[in-house]
């Protein structure tokens, strides 16, 4: 812990090792570099290796501590025994309501009203939050039982926010072998190039001012299809040029000038929004806790849906994968263009689309793929100091 604390003073967060292994000598390759393959696997204590989960029998200690602090603040006491009954500690119904509100603000999780009184201690509140987190994450990641997707079941899932953060810092997506390498050239990392990176970002807060109709229309026009000698021409590719992925929109009341609330289909050839369900309302419960605030703030939602009838006759079982790839290309195109229109977007990995399926006049062969939330922003990129953008060239030194 001491070593970690010292390193935290010296290094940025992501470079602080999550585990330490002490060796007398480092294994070397024949050309004298550290042989990464010869290094022992670090033992992570909280499931961050991806091979072990954390029991939710007892809620994460840090989480319990955070909730205890929150409750202590409400009850105006210095410290709280996690097992003590809140009512015995003098909490009244107003205190309980405040605790529920503060938990919602801090953890984006609302303790169900019916449970507020049965969850009578800090420990019980932490456990309830913990179980909910496990349930949501498991639902979001329910993996297919066949094909490559089933291989994901080889890994135990990591649920706690801290453990997930630690796992992210391991950068398992990077190969760490000590291969001989060829250094590539790149344009100079000047301010313009840094801006290119910063202008595409996931936006989770939006301006509540109505988004002007033209700005929104021009933004959607990146998906507009043209014709070249009668053939569809689009700014993204599609297997066989079939374009089976359709965009459906939900617009909130008074958030886009000149557009009434409701659901729409975007017709890419006509560049028109077709009204499907006027005045439809979508509830925040469509989304996982982590995305509810983003949804509350957003002005519009875009749901990408694959029409299997438009692709399966030519591509059979590959159709869903091809639709997902196309949805990714469509999202990337809008993501890259959004800031030019002072629009922010956030990609949403999973939502309970079945809840709202009826709002879009779909048939059984329409498959839900992906969701984007968006709205007006006040600036074209997040306010990040350009000096803070650097090239990460030290991973070869074994710092990760
Ligand atoms: C497949 C996928 C699913 C995502 N799901 C969510 C999500 O549910 N909620 C969210 O806030 N961001 C989501 N994101 C956005 C990522 O968190 C984001 O792209 C990543 O943290 C990098 O940050 P940046 O986009 O600002 O560069 C998703 C991104 C992808 C590609």
> Sheet with the most strands?
6 strands, antiparallel
CATH architecture call of one domain: 3-Layer(aba) Sandwich
| N-to-C SSE string, H for helix and E for strand | HHHHHHHEEEEEHEHHEE
What is the count of helical runs?
10
Distance between the termini: 18 Å
What is Rg? 25 Å
Structural class: alpha+beta
Average pLDDT metric: 85
What is the CATH superfamily of one domain?
NADH Oxidase
Percentage of residues in helical conformation: 25-40%
Annotated CATH topology of one domain: NADH Oxidase
Low-confidence blocks of residues: 45-57, 395-400
Strand coverage percent: 5-15%
Strand order of the largest sheet: 5-4-3-6-8-7
- CATH class category of one domain: Alpha Beta
* Shape descriptor: globular
Secondary structure: number of strands: 8
Bound compounds, each kind once, are: flavin mononucleotide
Walkthrough of the structure:
The protein has 400 residues and is α+β, with helices and mostly antiparallel strands. Among the domains are: 61-140, Non-ribosomal Peptide Synthetase Peptidyl Carrier Protein, Chain A; 200-376, NADH Oxidase. It is built from ten helices and eight strands. The protein has helices spanning 2-10, 61-75, 93-107, 122-140, 161-169, 191-198, 213-220, 289-297, 312-315, 319-338, and strands at residues 226-228, 231-233, 245-251, 262-267, 272-278, 300-307, 343-348, 366-376. Strands 5-4-3-6-8-7 form a six-stranded antiparallel sheet, sandwiched between helices. Helix 2 packs across helix 3 (93-107) and helix 2 (61-75) packs across helix 4 (122-140). The longest helix has 20 residues, at 319-338. The radius of gyration is 25 Å and the shape is globular. The chain binds flavin mononucleotide. Flavin mononucleotide (FMN) binds next to helix 8 and strand 7.
